[in-house]
Amino acid sequence: MTTTLDHLANRLAADRDSAFPDLVRALQDGIYSGSLQFTRNRQDAEDVTQETFVRVYRALESYDEERIRDLQLRPWAWTIALNLCRNRARTANRHPETSLVDDRVDQTGDTAGEAASNVDLAEWRQRLAGLTGPQRTAIVLHHVVGLPYAEIAESTNRSESTVRSDVRRGLARLRTLMEQEKR
Amino acid sequence: MTDTDMITAQLAALARPAPNALLGAVLIGTDLADEYTLIEGPIGSAYVAWNARGFTAFVPTEAVGSRDDFEARHPRDASFVDSPPDRLAMHLARTIETGRLGRLPIDLSSIGDFQRKVLEKCAEIPPGEIRPYGWIAREIGNPGAVRAVGTALGRNPVPVLIPCHRVVRTDGRIGNYAYGSPMKRSLLKHEGLNPDAIETQARHGIRLVGSDTTHIYCYPTCRHAKRISDAHRVEFRSEADAVENGYRSCKVCRPAA
Question: Which residue in A3, A8, A92, A4 sits closest to A56, CA to CA?
């Protein structure tokens, strides 16, 4: 993955417009999957993912070749995506009535995908809400999206060891929450 | 399986593929792809494509029948939608109705300087009037570039909207068109011109007409030339012919520099 993305950075530097669709293809599933946990519903996750790529493109337009070649594409895109998710959460809190659509997540969702994975999105959303913000971000980026610790550290502007301990403590907290559910 | 393994496995299963439409939406949002639709043009249906900067293509279905064919020949990715956004749709309807470009936005961003000047000049020709290629060359300050003007017009990405059918050969014949000479003639007929009569006149060597009351000469299709009554109408074979007879050129159709 990393070599593909390094290669992609070179291609973007050489010919931005022809390489850009491949950048979207390479990152879209990860950014959508993460945004799904950081926003209220599918529509928000889709909007955030789309807006992330539009901003990525606008930024690429303003960078020179050398700067593009040196970009860590995935953590850089995630910095943008996390910002957008935060902005959305803030707007949602200011207009709490709209958060009613939360409930629709599972009804309008891709039932096929959920049946296959046998994992309840809403249940997990509830559990993840029991973590601190940094723990949730680290857990989702590492275990749902599959980002290495170093990239999470870069996206969130924290040290790698802090990210590791956030993930460790987050997992411990989730275990506790799940045990409480059983009782 | 430990609790932690179970938890991380379930977390990994929360991942979802991005919706199929996402890439297309991003490419339109970044202007890397266009949208297009099917409309009724002045003489039959046509595909029109656009992006955030304006219209990018106008292709009569007579030339390109299926959506697949259109997408294959369009220079960028294009996805079909039911209609343009309201503002574009309104300007487009007006342009097709009036034959004037008006405020219709056209994306000329990937077009070179020379071709842009040619197309912008061409867009000034009113409906129902024609000008020779040499007129455009002279008007844009490149009087020697008559052939290049022809090439630039032949590559007009939005024919009909930018009316390259109103530009004819310097010898007065109707000449070629990207979608064939018959379509060019039909478009001119639709604007009230008679292509056969125009060519007959040209065969007789008549290039300009003047009025013996004003002593002004025009291109024969200029709106001021059309007002000249038969009794006062004078025909000229060339600019020199008109000037020798004491006539000056019209300031509207500008048949001479």
Answer: A8
pTM score: 0.65
CATH of the domain at B130: 1.10.10.10
Its domain, for residue B219, covers 205-257
Cross-chain Cβ contact A57/B32 below 8 Å: yes
**Total number of domains in chain A:** 1
**Domain span at A128:** 2-182
| Complex-level ipTM | 0.86
Condensed to tens digits (0 to 9), the pLDDT of residues A68-104 reads 999 999 999 999 999 999 998 888 777 655 444 444 4
**Which residues on A lie below 8 Å from B18 (Cβ)?**
28-29, 31-32, 46, 49
- The residue in chain A having the minimum alpha-carbon distance to the alpha carbon of residue B25 is A50
Please indicate, yes or no, if residue B19 is contained in any of the structural domains: no
Specify the number of domains making up chain B. 2
Chain A positions in Cβ-Cβ contact with residue B25 (cut-off 8 Å): 50
Helix (H, G, I), strand (E, B) or coil at A3: helix
Question: Residue B164 catalytic?
Answer: yes
Q: Output the CA torsion sign for A77, A78, A82, A83.
A: negative
Read off the pLDDT of residues A31-66 as tens digits, 9 standing for 90 and up: 999 999 999 889 999 999 999 999 999 999 999 999
